[in-house]
Design brief:
Belongs to the adrenodoxin/putidaredoxin family. The structure is a single chain. With about 110 residues, the protein is an alpha+beta fold. It is built from 3 helices and 5 strands; from the N terminus they run ββαβααββ. It is about 20% helix and about 20% strand. A 5-stranded mixed sheet has the order 2-1-5-3-4. A hairpin with a 5-residue loop joins strand 1 and strand 2. The longest helix is centred in the N-terminal third of the chain and has 7 residues. The termini are far apart.
């Protein structure tokens, strides 16, 4: 079970043990991380789980799907090169130690 650190917009880090196969959105909401809304429940239909992945995660992840890229066009906060939707990132052991930074707002 990898530990992934979520950094809230105010700088508060929250390390979370994420079961392999869970999405980062599921893990964040299950552990009360402030900054992930996940209105659509993880179906890649709302962009309220926008996050910024670190270089470790960026190197491990496959490219964003066309659907995810379309949703990223609708994010409220600044879109950056490492912007992803947390609902589309499934935890693996290789992600241990990764850091996910959350934007100032989702809605």
């Amino acid at each position: 079970m990898p530990t992934i650190t979520f950094v809230e917009a105010n700088g508060t880090p929250t390390p979370v043990d994420v079961p392999e196969g869970w999405s980062l959105m599921q893990a964040a909401t299950a552990h009360g991380v402030d900054g992930i809304v996940g209105e659509c429940g993880g179906s890649c239909a709302c962009a309220t789980c926008h996050c910024y992945v670190d270089d470790l995660l960026a190197a491990l992840l496959p490219p964003a799907s066309d659907n995810e890229l379309g949703m990223l066009e609708n994010v409220v906060a600044e879109r950056r090169p490492h912007s992803r939707l947390a609902c589309q990132i499934k935890a693996t052991a290789a992600m241990a130690g990764a850091v996910v930074t959350l934007p100032e707002c989702q809605e």
